[in-house]
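Figure 3 (text version): structure tokens given as input.
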């Protein structure tokens, strides 16, 4: 029981230290808090609905054409499950450490795009429900 208490205390101290570190970031530069919705480390996840809601599609590599890929139910919901990813994503989260990703309107990384920096999430604007490819910024 003593070990559990010590681990809990360490966790509380660690969380407090993290909160202090994040509190020093200027509000204008602070990224949106990241929530997983089932997304995993080193993946980008596209969601059927805004605000990381609904069915999800996750990938780790560049995809020049989202045709043929479908959304699957996630921790964030099942709305849109089975729907094509191409031209149906409304938001995205990026769990890739150090690399942003660009979601493009057209296949082969052409046209307008929305950027999703590392460890952030966005509601897509230029590519909302009009997305066709995704490429990592290296």
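Below: residues designed for each position.
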């Amino acid at each position: 029981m003593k070990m559990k208490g010590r681990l809990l205390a360490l966790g509380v101290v660690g969380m407090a230290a993290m909160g202090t570190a994040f509190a020093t970031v200027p509000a204008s530069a602070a990224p949106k808090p990241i929530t997983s919705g089932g997304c995993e480390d080193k993946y980008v996840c596209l969601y059927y609905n805004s605000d990381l809601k609904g069915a999800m599609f996750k990938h780790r590599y560049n995809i020049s054409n989202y045709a043929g890929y479908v959304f699957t139910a996630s921790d964030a919901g099942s709305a849109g499950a089975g729907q094509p990813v191409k031209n149906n994503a409304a938001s995205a989260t990026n769990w890739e450490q150090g690399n942003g990703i660009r979601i493009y309107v057209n296949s082969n990384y052409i046209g307008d795009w929305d950027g999703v920096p590392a460890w952030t999430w966005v509601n897509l604007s230029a590519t909302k429900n009009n997305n066709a490819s995704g490429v990592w910024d290296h």
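The helical segments are 2-23.
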